[in-house]
Specification:
This protein is mainly alpha-helical and about 270 residues long. It has 3 domains: about 90 residues, Serine Threonine Protein Phosphatase 5, Tetratricopeptide repeat (Alpha Horseshoe), CATH 1.25.40; about 80 residues, no CATH class; about 80 residues, Serine Threonine Protein Phosphatase 5, Tetratricopeptide repeat (Alpha Horseshoe). It contains 15 helices and no strands.
Amino acid sequence: MRLILIVAALSIPVYAISQPNCEIYKSSNEPCYTACLLSIRATGPQGSRQSQKDFDAAIELCPSFDYAYFEKSVPYLKRGEFATWKKLIDKAVELNPIAHLGYRGWCKYQFLRDYRGSLMDLEKLESVMGDDIGYSMNGDYHLEIVKALCYKGIGDRQKAIDIIESQLSKPEYSPMPYDYLHLGIIKMEVGDVGGAIELLNKSIQYSEYLPDNYYYLGLLYKKQGMIAKSKSNLEKARAYYQKGYKRFDPYTHPMDQVFIADIERELQDFD
């Protein structure tokens, strides 16, 4: 079950979003109905010249149709053309902030490492929606956890801890695969070694085969002088990594990601 959880989270399409219901425009707004149909047709060969032309035509027909701006923006984000992406996604947010603020905030965090900009978007969304602001587009995180990671990114680790602990304490919340991992790492960074070890062991319950858990446990046990435990965890991290159980994003490096070179470097101390 734990393996399925990790694989399922990683296999969710990175930028999947539900298509609009074009029928709501059919009887009342023919141009927007046509624009909606054009936008759905254009989403197939994403980033192709024809798809972008279709989005342009949709926008010309219905300048208030936010979905066309959103979909037109996605290839630019994936290609690293962030200025063009931002211009388009900003327009989508202007037209429909509730639908797109969370996405833009997530992208600012994940792609641009614009932690303050991400916080502005997510906290603005929270002011409208309340506590449940939804999940990241890749399915890995609740956006409250993304908020916490942004606070870590700007150096406010205690705020990050408070947000994650608050989110995990909610009875209706089901922890995501990396929640306890990040909380454990932040505890390690503030010097709470015992708390970090406890949380990383808890993380293993949700993502048993994730090498990051064992890598950071290896560092913590080394700090405590528990050499055998340190080596054992680092070797386990290497074994799982070599079997392909690792965090992966085709466009960016996730925060706190561990690479095989990190593991090998730590294991060299035991040679």
